[in-house]
Amino acid sequence: MTTPEHPGARETLIRVRGLRTQFGSHVVHDGLDLDVYRGEILGVVGGSGTGKSVLLRAITGLDTPAAGRIEAFGTEVLGASPEERERLDQRWGVMFQDGALFSSLTVRENVEVPLRRIPDLTPELRRALADLKVSLVGLPYRAGEAYPSELSGGMRKRAGLARALALDPEIVFLDEPTAGLDPIGASAFDSLINTLSEALGLTVFLVTHDLDTLYATCDRIAVLAEKRVLVTGTLPQMLEVDHPWVQEYFTGPRARLARGAGRSDTKPEAE
Ligand SMILES: Nc1ncnc2c1ncn2[C@@H]1O[C@H](COP(=O)(O)OP(=O)(O)OP(=O)(O)O)[C@@H](O)[C@H]1O
Known about the structure:
Blueprint: E1 12-23, E2 26-37, E3 41-46, H1 52-59, E4 67-72, E5 75-76, H2 82-91, E6 92-95, H3 107-115, H4 123-136, H5 153-164, E7 171-175, H6 183-200, E8 203-207, H7 211-217, E9 220-225, E10 228-233, H8 235-238, H9 244-251, H10 253-260
Helix pairs in contact: 3-4, 3-5, 4-5, 6-7
Bound molecules: adenosine-5'-triphosphate (ATP).
């Protein structure tokens, strides 16, 4: 299937070509291509088990694919030297579905973990920078002193985002950030993603099942199906795609609800 859009000549931050991932004989991706452009919020959708999380992990070097090329900021992720890898890790942040926080550390200490990679950063400055990130994601100051178990699910997700933002990355990878949140909490998280994208020029790679989030935040969508990125495009373009899963997902009853009565901060149609 062709890719019906290209948002002008934009800088490609991440370029994936011919990606193949597999676990034993189970092939998850085969011949997957994807570009992520600077400054965009890209929503990655697909049925359960189509490999959205595996793609995120492959791009960020957490899983090693069987074949293909992944380029981030012009650097080959696969086969990057430890020094290159360190530089890449400073240019992206990853927020996992459950926040993946260390339960024995306070929120501030969790956010300080990536900051420990910066040589010569005094403990006082590290702490101050962590507090800044905690407030950047809309958590109250006292949340920095709380342990993850003392926070609500929504606050834990924000804490996970604060840690992902610790090193001022250019791109954040968010794995189902609104999963498990009530609609008000999910809507607040959508607004936070939009605000951070606009204020910091942050690029966002967003794995989600949440149609409301797609409508509220995403500039572009990539659909995973048939072991690859089947199609990319804007939301209006998705409505024109002639593929059963895409049709069902974007024009089914839940999609109509999301489109019609979307959250209050629904993003205007991109391009
Ligand atoms: N470490 C692993 N070992 C074996 N199989 C794995 C591993 N990680 C993922 N898989 C398999 O790869 C496939 C894709 O998994 P992935 O978690 O990426 O799907 P997903 O699209 O994110 O699904 P969901 O929407 O349900 O979260 C699944 O069949 C999963 O069982």
